[in-house]
Amino acid sequence: MPSPITQNLDILKKAQQLDSEIHHAHILLEEIPSQRAQLKADLELEKTHFTELEKMLKDIQLKLKEKELELSQKEMQIKKLDGQLSQVKTNKEYAALQQEIASLKADNSLLEEGIIHILDEVEAAKDETRKEKEKVALVTKSFQDKDSELVTQEKNLQGRLVDLKKQREEAVTQLPPELAELYNRIVVKKQGLALAAVNGEVCAACQMQLRPQLINEIRLGEQIIVCENCSRILYFES
User: How far apart are CA 141 and CA 150, in angstroms?
Assistant: First the structure.
């Protein structure tokens, strides 16, 4: 029949396994809010970029309208001046009007070139905006899917934690009160790792060389032995 110390160590190992799972579950739970926040931030970044592209497209379109209006006004001026040519009485006035018309036509030529360039900009901006809109739709769908997965994961982890903590309490209550208190104290300090196997002649947790006498006491199995360096409960793998 196993000795009381051996039985207690078996219970401690079971509690340790449960506490390790509890600790890991807590870590995963703590990461979920930041993961959800990052997903939302990525989505908002894409939406912001799309909004900026839409604004840029509108600005270019407004610039195009301004240039087209300016061209239209100059063409009206040319038409008006053309009508005045037949009314002038001197060659000097005629030449002045022709010079003004030529200057306006030169301006219009530049305006037309500029309008062609802006039209190219409009098409490019429209294409980029369309692509970004499609990307936003994909990112939105991805966000919804991943966020839903994280919500489900969070609920599952919370349910799992309730079950693990119940099993853990059931295990710890089988220990003598003083040993349960020692274990609980170490678990809190050591972030879920209260036990450490003896690996050769060292503590597997902190890698500290163990005294021969301490190793012999662990082998005898007459009492619970803790590492003199990291204070974890030591045991030999069976």
Answer: 14
